[in-house]
Amino acid sequence: MAARDGFYSRFVVLAKILLPLASLALLSTLFLFSDSRGPSGDLPIALNDLQERARDEVISNPRFAGASPSGDILAFEADTAQPDPVVPHMALARALRAQINLNSGTKVTFSAISGTLNTRDQVAQLTGEVLIYSSTGYTVRTDALTTQMDTVAASTDGPVQADGPAGQLTAGKMELTQDTQTGDVHLLFTNGVKLVYQP
Questions:
Q1: φ, ψ (nearest 5 deg) of residue 51
Q2: Per-residue pLDDT tens for 102-160?
Q3: Nearest Cα to 174, choosing from 138, 120, 128, 199?
Q4: pTM
Q5: What are the structural domains, with CATH classification, of the chain?
Q6: pLDDT of residue 132
Q7: Is 146 exposed, middle or buried (0-12, 13-18, 19+ CB in 10 A)?
Q8: Roughly how many angstroms between the first and final C-alpha of the chain, as a whole number?
């Protein structure tokens, strides 16, 4: 029994010496055979790629909201927005949507495939299958629309087709305006208006 205890004690003493030595040998081998290149050589992305990605920065689900001087709430949102690399206050948006909640309770919404946001001039330009919907019952379709982001004002850049309580109509232009004194909002159709009345 004493011999077994003596063997175990000698084993523990040897292990305390040999194990640290073995670990030092392994570490020295790792340093000896490690790659001598600096950390920059291990980067899988070149500096040019990083700069290109910074220019191509895309913001997901951006949202801009504010109020007009008369207290109407305006909100703009998109699936993605990409800052213009040349003009700092411009951004390109995909699946751009806007909603205007008027004090009267009426809601007007815009949607388009794409658009540009000018944060300096507070102007948004919607392009590609623009759909305008008013809770008063009007649905308007056009190719392009320019709208303010800080007040209730918008106009189409070309012809429109509309469905509403009075029937179907076509026009060369549509404007959304607000009376500064009463706060009333009006849809104004101009330039060759044709109405198919449906009582």
A1: -65, -40
A2: 888 889 999 999 999 998 999 999 999 999 999 988 899 999 999 998 889 999 989 99
A3: 138
A4: 0.68
A5: 55-157 (2.60.450.10)
A6: 94
A7: middle
A8: 113
Q: Which position has the higher pLDDT, 38 or 142?
A: 142
Measured CA to CA, the distance from residue 74 to residue 100 in angstroms comes to 5
In total, the chain counts a number of residues equal to 199
In one-letter notation, the amino acid at residue 101 is: N
Read off the tokens for 157. 């850049």
Number of C-beta neighbours around residue 81 at 10 A = 23
SS (H, E, C) the chain: CHHHHHHHHHHHHHHHHHHHHHHHHHHHHHHHHCCCCCHHHHCCCCHHHHHHHHHCCCEECCEEEEECCCCCEEEEECCEEEECCCCCCEEEEEEEEEEEECCCCCEEEEEEEEEEEECCCCEEEEEEEEEEEECCCCEEEEEEEEEECCCCCEEECCCEEEEECCEEEEECEEEEEECCCCCCEEEEEECCCEEEECC
